[in-house]
């Protein structure tokens, strides 16, 4: 039923356009602190995870404490939390326009 509602496409189009493609800067409270294994920098230790799941390190060259934020930009946040994609904005506009035209005629 989720995909049959025109409200889905309205919200995805509006939110994707309004807050999509913005960089996120985590506050100190949101940063997850972890320690890199001996002999590795934070960037080396977290590179595979960040490549798959996203996010960023506050200091990738550090070899001690690593500060990690789970989202780099609003597109990652919207996709992971709400299944909203910035790239769908014109598709959503077309679907919404088609829905209106089919219901008017």
Summary, kept brief:
The chain is mostly helical. It has helices at residues 6-19, 42-53, 74-82, 89-104, and strands at 32-35, 56-57, 65-69.
Give the helix/strand layout:
Elements: H1 6-19, E1 32-35, H2 42-53, E2 56-57, E3 65-69, H3 74-82, H4 89-104
Antiparallel strand pairs: 1-3, 2-3
Question: What do these coordinates show?
Answer:
The chain is mostly helical and 105 residues long. The protein has helices spanning 6-19, 42-53, 74-82, 89-104; strands spanning 32-35, 56-57, 65-69. The protein has a 3-stranded antiparallel β-sheet with strand order 1-3-2, covered by helices on one side. The radius of gyration is 19 Å and the shape is rod-shaped. The model has no long low-confidence stretch (mean pLDDT 93).
Number of helices: 4
Helicity range of the residues? 40-55%
Largest sheet: 3 strands, antiparallel
- Structural class per helix/strand content? mainly alpha
Arithmetic mean pLDDT: 93
Shape: rod-shaped
Q: Could you tell me how far the N terminus lies from the C terminus, measured between alpha carbons in angstroms?
A: 23 Å
Radius of gyration: 19 Å
**Strand arrangement, major sheet:** 1-3-2
Question: What are the low-pLDDT stretches, counting only 5+ consecutive residues below 50?
Answer: none
Q: Percent of residues in beta strands? A: 5-15%
Order of helices and strands: HEHEEHH
Number of strands: 3
